[in-house]
Write a structure and sequence with these properties.
mainly beta; five-stranded mixed sheet; 37% strand
Length: 373
């Protein structure tokens, strides 16, 4: 009896082995055979796998580790620029076949043409913080639109965090040296009055024409100093009248943007979407106000800020501060290699009071791409 059972088991194993030997592993024919693939934002790239020997097998496609398809093909469409890893596996009971693609999707670039302008071509957003010029000529959205194609008009950004976002009719290229000029109205010695603005840049990584991608700060002379506060937040409350605008910050401080009799109106931006409170975030630069005799001054920083009478910029001739896109850092302070940028954001970098002269408020008169003469 024992011998017959053993013979039966051996016979069954033999039959199973024969059936398995008749199954061939996947002999895969890939539509895209290279390892490195270049794709474009919002444009589909088709990947598929067929068989060379007629043997059936199953499919699995993983994009950055996540299964995205279990059929023979996968259409890859990037929503933004970046590097992606697409791993394919074809398998059956006899074996498996694998192939890995590295997909590079470059940032969409709007090329410079003979018709391209070096000046601002559009204003994407303008939201000032409370300030004495807000809600009057120099602090209204319609005034911000006058920066298009010009460097002679003026817009006020109000107190800390108030900002303007603009773009050009092309992508600004990161060339050797300074790439961008932003015009302001600081004054020089002996009665310095600078109102430094922080500059940030962004690429249109998703190609939608909107400034909704990651922002990078152009790190100026104060960026690494202990007196500079990163990730600063301040919240202003609307007084809904001609009255001091109260504020609180994430450092446990509170204060007021004080009104004056030269501007008898509400200092809170009445055109802001939120009419109760408004919060701004960014890098807070140390105050630099003081006095020469009885005259209030606001000293400039060495370099890297707009509306600041910097040593390396000739305000007597050019009336602008210049910026190198190679100064860009990410939110962790790491340097970023940007080949081009599409959007620029300028915001008031100080939270300071200049007495009878009002709050420190960055002013912008325009900007130009220094790569276009």
């Amino acid at each position: 009896m024992k011998k017959s059972i053993n013979y039966a088991m051996v016979f069954c194993l033999f039959l199973f082995s024969c059936k398995k030997d008749n199954v061939l592993g996947p002999d895969v024919n890939l539509l895209v055979k290279t390892d490195a693939v270049q794709a474009k934002v919002a444009v589909a790239t088709n990947f598929s796998a067929g068989t060379n020997n007629g043997q059936a097998f199953q499919h699995e496609w993983k994009l950055d580790g996540k299964v995205v398809s279990t059929i023979y093909n996968y259409n890859f469409t990037a929503t933004k620029a970046g590097t992606y890893v697409l791993a394919y596996k074809g398998y059956n009971e006899a074996g498996e076949f694998t192939h890995t693609y590295t997909i590079t999707v470059p940032v969409p670039v709007v090329e410079i043409t003979p018709a391209s302008s070096k000046f601002i071509s559009r204003i994407l957003d303008y939201l000032p913080a409370p300030g004495q010029f807000v809600n009057e000529t120099l602090g209204k959205p319609e005034q911000a639109q006058k920066l298009i194609g010009s460097t002679t008009n003026l817009i006020s950004l109000g107190g800390f965090g108030g900002y303007i976002i603009f773009g050009f009719d092309h992508s600004v290229v990161n060339n050797t040296g300074n790439d961008l000029a932003i015009y302001g109205n600081p004054s020089g010695a002996p009665y310095h009055f600078s109102e430094p603005g922080v500059v940030m840049v962004s690429q249109d990584s998703n190609g939608n024409g909107l400034a909704d991608d990651e922002w990078y700060e152009l790190a100026g002379s104060e960026y690494t100093k202990a007196t500079t506060i990163k990730n600063y937040e301040i919240t202003y409350t609307n007084p809904k009248a001609f009255a001091n605008v109260t504020w609180k910050d994430n450092q446990g401080n509170s204060g007021e943007v004080k009104v004056n009799n030269f501007h008898k109106h509400n200092f809170y931006p009445e055109f802001a979407a939120n009419q109760e409170t408004i919060t701004f975030k960014g890098t807070l630069l140390p105050p630099s106000t003081g006095k020469v005799g009885s005259i209030v001054i606001s000293s400039p920083f060495d370099w890297g800020y707009t509306d600041s009478y910097s040593t390396g910029d000739d305000y007597k001739t050019n009336l602008y501060n210049s910026f190198d896109l190679s100064w860009a850092v990410d939110k962790s302070g790491n340097k970023v290699d940007l080949k081009t940028i599409d959007f620029v954001k300028v915001y008031t970098g100080q939270s300071a009071d200049a007495g009878s002269l009002g709050e420190i408020s960055t002013e912008v008169k325009g900007a130009v791409d220094l790569g276009i003469k």
